[in-house]
Amino acid sequence: MSGILEPLLPTVLSVRRIPNAAAALLEAYGADPDKHVSLGLITCDQDDALYVALDEATKHAAVDVIFARSFYAGAGVASGPISGEILGVIAAADPDEIEEGLRVALRCLEHDACFYAADDAGATAVFPHVITSLGRYLSAEAGLSEGVPMAYLVAPPMEATIALDAALKAANVRAVKVFPPPSETNFAAAWLTGSLPDCEVAALAYAEAVVEVAREPKG
Asked: Which residues contact 68 (CB under 8 A, 6 or more apart)?
């Protein structure tokens, strides 16, 4: 059991800046050319970790997340060596804000948001992440107010289904969004909200259920 719930740290594969992006590029990626001038781009081998990191960036810098999308089937079949599992793009009026936003996002990927091993081999991964205070990006995506807590839960299809049931029964939380399988990366996910302690209890129950299913898949 020693390897279970050990962090599986994300790998940042590329980080680039465009200080003065072309208007057509800004429009194509969802930016407002009247508001946004500069872009910051990140690719990573864990999509959900980067979604959380991009949200974190909006809490500390005057940046907007204009594009964040998972790639089909995941990092194992990426289109190139630096493609990973996701491309995230932040936009701002000032290149200095882009630098701060990237700094915050990278720090989050290094020290906070990551998947965990749900079995000794690390073949099954779970993302039982609690965001203590939502930023502007994920709060809008979830239809919640900024600053509220949210449990961001991800696992493979069978594990995620059993674990979501366990999480909802373990704490006074409600499902904001449920993403049945398959996601672009063939996982399943759910966003739950409630008090911070309840979100933490739900995330722990989710992780424990994923571990249990991984250990006894025919139980």
From this structure: 50, 51, 54, 86, 87, 88, 89, 137
